[in-house]
Amino acid sequence: MSQPPTNPPAEKDGLHPRNRHRGRYDFAALQRATPELAQFVAPNPFGDESLDFANPEAVKTLNKALLRQFYHVPHWDIPAGYLAPPIPGRADYVHYLADLLAKTNGGEVPTGKRVRVLDVGVGANCIYPIIGHREYGWRFVGSDVDPVAIRVAKQIVASNPGLSGAIDCRLQPRASDIFSGIVKANELFDLTMCNPPFHASAAEAEAANRRKTQNLGTKPVPNFGGQSNELWYEGGEATFTWRMAEESALQRHNCLWFSTLISKKETLPGLYKTLEKRGAVEVRTIGMSQGQKVSRIVAWTFLNPEQQQQWRQRRWQAGPAPVPTVPESGHVK
Fold first, then answer.
1. Over pLDDT 90: what percentage of the chain?
2. How many CA atoms are closer than 13 Å to the CA of 258, on its beta-carbon side?
3. Where is the major localization of this protein (predicted)?
4. Which CATH code is given to the segment(s) 83-324?
5. pLDDT over 80 at 11, yes or no
6. How far apart are alpha carbons 108 and 167 in whole angstroms?
7. pTM of the model
8. CA–CA dist 30, 81 (Å, integer)
9. CA-wise closest residue to 50 among 37, 66, 60, 68
């Protein structure tokens, strides 16, 4: 695991205190690490170096540079049209989940290969497992319904020796399922995570992209990309997370904490109701923000405090030395 940078300049509002990307992008350093980034960097109206974030190829190349510089992943690429997510926000999710585990571990983040995480919808980019493994040494299973995404994610893992043996990518055989078909009998995970598709249909996703690009004054091209399964699910975010909550109840003894990102606050009441109905012992809502963008993580467990401590003793106490946490900036319900 690499160490976070010290004294980051010009902190970005709202990012987690351990997030490596709190400072402004150092385009000079990024271009030295990834020279092909130079063609996309130019002064903005204020005279500062910036990137054309409406250009999907520019965003993908920035991701290559960030993964190389901060996470020591020199070989990363995805096919055209696949999601190239903004890495600072992805890192935030990982760090807040680390804090969640710390609450069960005496205030310290458990690290190393004893911690296993399931990333539902890993995508071709494999970003969450890369960040989680490089920051905390965790092992990951990444699932996806798209065979191409799984093939590309496997190629990324195989091309980078530092990821070898740490990330297992599995194809979800049924597009409607979440955990079924992925979690094996008696397989245990300390965390699950997911960035669910939040549109209800392809038409809704296309309309949202048109509105976004009109506001930016650019051509209607999704700057971060995304295949249909990455962007929409029949019934939208509410239906997807309802299904996740239902299936999590069937895996209640296989996982300590289930979690998902929620982009629409209107999704929350229905999810809370389903979790209450299915017997979740504890539900936490953790606020995240980056500039004007506000989202939240909903996490839940079916284990009571005594069972959580038994889980800790069984799985983590013999593991590597944990790292200290910092005070949370997110709101916990």
1. 69
2. 29
3. cytoplasm
4. 3.40.50.150
5. no
6. 23
7. 0.85
8. 24
9. 37
